[in-house]
Write a structure and sequence with these properties.
heterodimer; A: alpha/beta; Rossmann fold; 6-stranded mixed beta sheet; 39% helix; B: mainly alpha; binds adenosine-5'-triphosphate; binds magnesium ion
């Protein structure tokens, strides 16, 4: 059962304030190894801020973020990635002038040892790592199902492929935990179904997934657990079928008390 | 649109190169290098520069501008950091040569690694605190650095202040190749060798991990860092390699000019080199080479119109940048898959 699994990520009483705005208010959150945890909530609830705090974009005002036994608070952003946390962006932030393959290869570089001198003089390790990275990146593109676009510039790719490339790039860093920020935004129902299958495949391949998503049916279909944020506060944390019926969740989403409707 | 098609040298060149077999590529490279190496012998042709000595012009400004532009292009073009103080590294190289050349028995080739190392150290020292800054802030700090270096040289006794340093020794001859003031062919070949070495270095790095890191930083630095790129480290590397090239150019310049003074290392030089990079095509090695060649050569070619030449120079800049805002040979990645598909169709 989920409860016997190891905790991979733990947010302990995390508060994040921007001046007068409290984006996160004492949030506790646990992500277990191998699960798909959905993070939902109305616009401005603080979902993206959770990702930003985990990945070091913002330093939390108070509280602890612990990943696999290591406190992320003092880590630089690239170190967080090296430890095994990768993310996508709500607003696509690919490197547009690189090809799809290069986007992923750049991500695969994080765990490699060879540096600038090796690259310059073509040391064997640098050459070997170049080949390994290229093969690994191609494998990931195939896994996500966008390998036919490998040589296209990211900025010229269709929107849906760009969203998938964001996921592929995150996987390129070889993460334990993948943070997906609204990966299905702007998708039609058919594309959403396809994406849900992809996310499941990602999990089944051994990655742990923390997923921000607005589409309820998508979430109910694939997530093991759902955490609901509202105005920076966690208001629910349970399996999908229970969360769906939670009156506070319904109120947060509809803006009226559940029994009044 | 028409202009673009006529002028699409970049794609023409890239196609030629991509479709060539390995021996053919070697042949293309050797013929091009041979052609450039013979340039100093063409002084009697339409290339001749009135008033100024033709082969001297090829060394400075043309060759030196190309070399420095390539160095600056690593910083500005490859990793997207606006450096307005590039002349500082040129000055450090030049003064290293001038001081060591006049006070010790070291010759130009022995000073070269020292000059390069000092420039690189300056690059790292400046880079560590400043490369956290971005965009305009970085531009202003580097501009300040360039001015500080010049003012220190102007006001220090070890640099002989505004008098500058005279009697800098020429490089020792390389076998039968003699360095002479009246005939600067050998100087030109040395600059050419340094340019080739720089191009080799940039090309090597561009297709491997450092080049990807720079490219990612240039396009979206936050995304780069969040995907695990140690951005500060690669920015410092970029800055330091640019500094190394500038320093190397400085050592050779002092040894060719035989006299240097702080007034030779003003902000104007930084701006002019930046203009070469932008004019040629920021981020594109061949664009930068062509841009620096034209901007280095043109003022001397039209020297006969004396005062009006700067006007013409400015006009050329404005007109070309109007028609080709990304430079003569713009950077643009081509999509291999598409190119191939079209070629087969
Ligand atoms: N850098 C910032 N400076 C100031 N306020 C911020 C900043 N980042 C987020 N906020 C505020 O924090 C709150 C939560 O924002 P966040 O982006 O986390 O919401 P979200 O749940 O991701 O919403 P959405 O569904 O619209 O993406 C909002 O009120 C937002 O205005
Ligand atoms: Mg958001």
């Amino acid at each position: 059962m989920a409860s016997t699994r190891k905790t991979l990520l733990k947010l302990d009483n995390v508060t994040m304030k921007f001046g007068g705005v409290t984006a996160l208010n004492g949030v506790n959150l646990e992500v277990k190894e191998g699960e798909i945890l959905a993070l939902i909530g109305p616009n401005g609830a603080g979902k993206t801020t959770v990702f930003n705090v985990i990945t070091g974009v913002y330093k939390q005002t108070s509280g602890i973020v612990d990943f696999d036994g290591i406190s992320l608070g003092n880590q630089k952003r690239y170190q967080v990635t090296a430890l095994g946390v990768a993310r996508t962006f709500q607003n696509i932030r690919l490197w547009g002038d690189m090809t799809a393959l290069e986007n992923v290869i750049t991500a695969t570089d994080v765990h490699k040892k060879s540096g600038l001198v090796g690259a310059l003089f073509g040391f064997p390790r640098a050459r070997r790592e170049e080949t390994e990275n290229r093969e690994r990146a191609m494998e990931i593109l195939r896994f996500i199902g966008i390998d036919e676009y490998s040589d296209r510039l990211a900025k010229n790719l269709p929107y849906g492929v760009q969203r998938r490339l964001e996921i592929a790039r995150a996987l390129g860093t070889g993460p334990k935990l993948v943070l997906l920020d609204e990966p299905a935004a702007g998708f039609n129902p058919a594309e959403k179904v396809e994406l849900a299958a992809t996310i499941k495949r990602v999990r089944d391949a051994g990655y742990t997934v923390l997923l921000i998503e607005h589409d309820m049916s998508l979430i109910m279909g694939i997530s093991d657990r759902v955490v609901v944020l509202d105005f920076g506060t966690k208001i629910a944390d349970d399996i999908p079928s229970v969360v769906q019926k939670d009156p506070r969740v319904i109120e947060a989403y509809l803006g009226v008390p559940a029994d009044a409707s | 649109m028409k202009i673009r098609n006529y002028w699409n040298l970049r794609d023409f060149g890239a196609n030629l190169w991509e479709n060539a077999s390995r021996p053919k590529r070697v042949a293309i490279a050797l013929i091009s290098i041979g052609f450039v190496a013979l340039l100093p012998f063409m002084g009697a042709s339409f290339l001749a520069t009135p008033i100024a000595s033709y082969d001297a012009v090829l060394v400075y400004p043309v060759g030196m501008f190309v070399l420095m532009s390539l160095g600056l292009n690593i910083v500005v073009g490859k990793s997207g950091m606006l450096d307005l103080g590039y002349v500082a590294f040129f000055a450090i190289g030049a003064y290293t040569m001038a001081i060591l050349g006049t006070t010790t028995k070291l010759n130009t080739w022995e000073v070269m690694p020292i000059g390069i190392a000092l420039s690189m150290i300056a690059g790292v020292l400046l880079g560590i605190p400043t490369l956290r800054l971005r965009g305009d802030y970085l531009a202003i700090v580097t501009l300040g650095f360039g001015e500080i270096v010049r003012l220190v040289l102007l006001n220090s006794s070890w640099s002989k202040g505004p008098n500058g340093i005279a009697n800098v020794p020429m490089p020792p001859n390389i076998g039968p190749l003699k360095f002479e003031l009246e005939n600067q062919k050998v100087f030109f070949w040395v600059v050419m060798a340094m340019i080739l070495l720089t191009i080799w270095m940039i090309r090597r790095l561009t297709v491997r991990r450092p080049g990807r890191a720079w490219e990612a930083i240039r396009q979206d630095e936050d995304a780069a860092e969040l995907m695990g790129v140690h951005t500060l480290k690669y920015k410092i590397w970029s800055f330091t390699l640019g500094a190394a090239v500038g320093g190397a150019a400085g050592v050779l310049y002092a040894s060719k000019n035989l006299y240097i003074a702080p007034e030779m290392f003003t902000l104007n030089v930084s701006i002019l080199i930046l203009a070469c990079v932008v004019f040629g095509g920021i981020g594109n090695i061949w664009g930068v080479v062509i841009g620096a060649t034209i901007l280095g050569y043109l003022p001397d070619r039209i020297r006969f119109i004396s005062d009006a030449r700067l006007l013409v120079f400015g006009l050329v800049l404005v007109i070309v940048m109007n028609f080709r805002p990304d430079g003569l040979l713009p950077r643009k990645k081509r999509e291999k898959a598409i190119v191939k598909r079209e070629a087969n169709a």
